[in-house]
Amino acid sequence: MEKVKFFCGCIMVSFIGIALLERKRKLQIQKKDYEIGSENTIDIENDATDSEMKKICNEQEALSLVKIKIGDNNGDWIWKCLWSDDDKFFVKAVSKIALEKGAMTGTAYSLYVNRNGNIEEIPLN
Questions:
Q1: Radius of gyration over alpha carbons of the chain, in Å?
Q2: How distant is the alpha carbon of residue 28 from its chain centre?
Q3: I need a surface site. Which of 2, 5, 61, 110 has the fewest CB within 10 A?
Q4: CA-closest candidate to residue 94, choices 104, 108, 82, 83
Q5: What CA–CA distance (Å, rounded) separates 58 from 72?
Q6: What is 50-73 written as a DSSP string?
C-alpha cells in the first residue's frame, strides 16, 4: 500500500513539475513580446502622456487589461481578480489544463494590476 501511495505521489509531483516547466517556457516567450520597465513590471502602452496616467477603477477593467496585454494562453487560462485595495488589484490566471491534470489550484500566473495601469508580475518562489 505504501508503494502505491508513493507511486501516486511521484506521478502528481511529475505533473506539477511538467506544468511549471511549461508555464515557465510560455512566460519566457511572452516576455519577449513586452517592453519590460522596472523589475517585473510590464509597461502598458496607451495614448496618454506621462502626466495622464491610465486609471483602473474596478476589477472588470483590471481583468480586461490583463486579458488584452497577457492573453489567455489559447483559451486555457481563466483570469480572476481575488482582491483589491486602494493601490492595486491581485489577479491570477487559472489553467484549465493544470486543473484537469490534478493541480491543486491551477495557478498559471499571478500579478498585480496597479491602478495606474502598470502590471507587476509576482514571481514564483
A1: 17
A2: 13
A3: 2
A4: 108
A5: 20
A6: TTS-----SHHHHHHHHHHHT--T
Sign, CA torsion 26/103/105/39? negative
Q: How far apart are CA 66 and CA 79, in angstroms?
A: 8
Task: Dump pLDDT digits (tens) for 4-59.
Answer: 555 545 555 455 656 555 666 555 554 444 444 444 545 544 444 443 456 899 99
Element (H, E) at 119: strand 119-121
Instruction: Report pLDDT for 12.
Output: 56
3-state secondary structure 85-100: CCCEEEEEEEEHHHHH
What's the count of helices (H) and strands (E) in the chain, helices before strands? 3, 5
> Which residue type occupies 21?
L
30: its cell numbers = 511572452
Pair 101, 19: CB distance under 8 Å: yes
